[in-house]
Every structure is written in structure tokens, then in C-alpha cells.
Amino acid sequence: MQQAIQFIRSNLSASYSTLELQSVSRLLISKVSGYSFTEIIVNKNTTFSEEQRKILRNYVEKLKSGLPIQYVLGETEFCGLNFMVNDAVLIPRPETEELVQWMLEEIEHDSLVLDIGTGSGCIAIALKHFLPGADVYACDIDEDSLGVAANNAENLGLKISFFQCDILKTEKSDRKYHVIVSNPPYIPCSERKDVMSRVKDFEPERALFVKDSDPLIFYRKIAQFAQLNLFPGGNLFFEVHRDFGKACVQLLEDMSYAEVQLKKDIFGNERMVKAVKK
After folding, report:
1. Fewer CB atoms < 10 Å away: N or C end of the chain?
2. Which long-range contacts (CB under 8 A, 24 or more apart) does 216-219 make?
3. How many CB atoms lie within 10 A of CB 94?
4. How far is it, in rounded angstroms, from Cα 255 to Cα 247?
5. What's the confidence (pLDDT) of residue 46?
């Protein structure tokens, strides 16, 4: 196993920082060996078989191309749960875990919840896992994304109602909800040059970028949808671009939402918004 770790480091040191490389190495060794991180330490002198070395070489070659490790391995962890991911969906981020945690602190355990732009299903599935009494619905414009999300829910034994929807062209739902949440596209196209290559070159653009001329388009449309489809007193949650938090708050206040809150993430960025329908 020590040889395998050295092989990873020698091939990927130019692609990752020291801390990133340590994490990548642990993930690769764990995937190939089947060991937990603790078991890797205990079994550090284990020798890989030829088949395991072949698998490892294949992973490393893909990583050298810039492909995110989550796509290489086909999985990632979110809120302590294992999710399948591929290039049809965004890779779940730690900031979104914070949004889920905030929601768990705020909403009733038997809520009707809608996740708009569900992607891998991470928000909807995490909510259903921790709030088994909730009735959770999730939609996305992309059929392939919905397939990934549905598989993730099935693998975790959770019942969620998924459906296809273009929220920019949708006004009315056939039901009302207590909670609507979304982590929509919010990066202006002008910032594309500043986004890491392994993000902008591999993750789905439609889930990342919006036109510079209207960066809040999804927030406005979802807030309009929520006005019609939230119960009075219902909660609307957003993840937002760190530079547009205050603008999102102003948008919601101008639309007569109450108790609008802007919350910072662990890095001190204004990344989460909550509002209440009057």
C-alpha cells in the first residue's frame, strides 16, 4: 500500500496542493482496497494485487486529465450519506450541507417539502433521511439528473417523489408546500475565468452559470413560484452567491416576504437565505 501511495503522489503532485493530495490519496486507497480510513493505517503494509494496481492506474490517469475525483470514483459523501454522482449533476458541496443543517433546525418534521433543481438529490434526500416524517418532492429540468437522484434515493431506501420541471416556465403546482428550497445556478458568466478548471470543464454548465444581465433570474422566478405554492407561513430557503446575498434579501423583501434572514457559512461568506411567506 505504501508503494501505491507513492505512485499517487508522484503522478498527481502537480495537480493538487499537499492537503488536497492527502485527501485524494486516502479516497483512492479506500476505494481500491475497500478499507476505511482507519483500516488503511492499520493495514498500511498490505500489497495490492495486479488487478488493484490496474484499477488505481486507471483512476490516476483520469485524475491527471483534471476530472474531479468524485466523478472518477462515481460517488461522494454528503451529510454523512453516500451519493452516486456523474457529469450529469453538480458535485455536492460542504456549504450546501450547512443549508440542510439550517433547514433541519427550522422546519417541522412532517413538512411538505419541494427541492427545485435537485441535481444529485442531495438536499431532498438528506432532508428525508433526517426527517422521515416529511413528504419530500424534488424536481429538475434535466432527465439525466433526475435519474441520478432517483437512484440515490433508492440506494438509501428513501421515498421521494421526483418530477421533471423547467422552473423558469412553471407557475402553478398541483399541491402546496410548507417548505421550498433551491440551490440554483448563480455564477455570472463573466466569472467563468475565475472558476477552477476541474469545475468549469467537467461539471454541468447549466447548473453553474447565469447571464450577467440577470444573475438573480432563478431566485426571482422561484420566489414568484413560492408565492403561489407555499402555504401561508411557509419557508423559502436558498443557497446564494456570496456576492449576491444582500441583493437576494432585497428581492424577497420587495416581494413582501417576511422574516428574511441572510446567514454566513463557516468561511464567513453570506451564502444562505431564508424567508417566510406572509
Report:
1. C
2. 216/244, 216/247, 216/248, 216/251, 217/168, 218/117, 218/167, 218/168, 218/182, 218/184, 218/185, 218/186, 219/184, 219/186, 219/248, 219/251, 219/252
3. 11
4. 12
5. 87
* Residue ranges covered by each domain of the chain: 2-65, 78-276
The CA-atom distances, in angstroms, between 47 and each of 24, 57, 92 are: 19, 15, 33
CA atoms within 13 A on the CB side of 156: 28
**What is the distance between the alpha carbons of residues 15 and 269, in angstroms, rounded to a whole number?**
27
Q: Name 17's bridge partners.
A: none
> Residue 151: what pLDDT?
98
CB 237 within 8 A of CB 103: yes
Read off the pLDDT band of 207 (50, 70, 90): very high
278: helix, strand or coil: coil
| Contact of 164 with 140, CB cutoff 8 Å | yes
Of 233, 224, 215, nearest to 255 (Cα)?
224
Q: From CA 109, how far away is CA 129, in angstroms rounded?
A: 11
Q: How many residues does the chain have?
A: 278
Predicted confidence (pLDDT) per residue in 54-109, tens digit: 999 999 999 999 999 999 999 999 999 999 999 999 999 999 999 999 999 999 99
Please name the CATH architecture into which domain 78-276 falls. 3-Layer(aba) Sandwich (3.40)
Amino acid at 171: E
Q: What does DSSP assign to residue 107?
A: S
Q: Please tell me whether residue 70 adopts helix, strand or coil conformation.
A: helix
126 pLDDT band, cuts 50/70/90, is very high
